[in-house]
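Data availability (excerpt). The following record was deposited with the supplementary files.
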Amino acid sequence: MIDSSDLLARIERGFDAARQALAPFRGVSVKATSKADMSPVTAADHAVNHALRDTLPRPGEGWLSEETADDARRLECDSLWIIDPIDGTREFIHNVPEWCVSIAYVHRGQALAGGIFNPATNEVILGAVGAGVTYNGNLVSLGRRNNLNGAVVLASRSEIRRGEWTGFENHGFEVRPLGSVAYKLGLVAAGQAEATWTLSPKNEWDVAAGAALMAAAGGVAANADFTTPIFNRPNPRIPGFLACAPGLDAPLRRLLGGHNI
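Predicted structure:
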């Protein structure tokens, strides 16, 4: 059994630390550099990463973050924190309010507690298995439906721009573009949308918090082939990911079956 109250309190303390770390970067122009994979990174990413590492792990707990050099010793840990200090750095740089701080607690491969904090909109989504999910402090629940008609589906802006969502047009649901994948997953877990999926490979730090929140909410979070995600693997790369409200997994299987996600 996990101590959900303790984990959620620790995640909230992590968000408080992130707020303080971000304060010098709000309302000013932030310069970015390119990492080896050509994705942008800023001093704000590193500042939040440092603040979270100082705040979250206890002795014996592992650490996996986009902005920390990977340490294989994490594989020996039963429990670890999986972090994306700023998911949606491009949105952060351009003042698009679709980025977030993403925190997940994983035990023996399962994402059991998580939080998404969007400082630009002041949204906080928290949840743990056995404790449910709160959205800005209020307990929320997922909608119940057995088809996608009228559903809101959150989609990657960049994937839409590349034309990768043209095959999902005219299926009876609204496709709503959004930035950060972690933010999209959090909004689905909070009942603000019915589904999201990614057509591009992601890393564990992109989706672990969302997976924990979906598990806490009683929804579906899965790899692209609908298998259960296992975290803290030697290679954190994930070929595709999806999340949906309960009852929509069968319609999604039918819809996505003909697409390589």
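Summary of structural features: The chain has seven helices and 16 strands.
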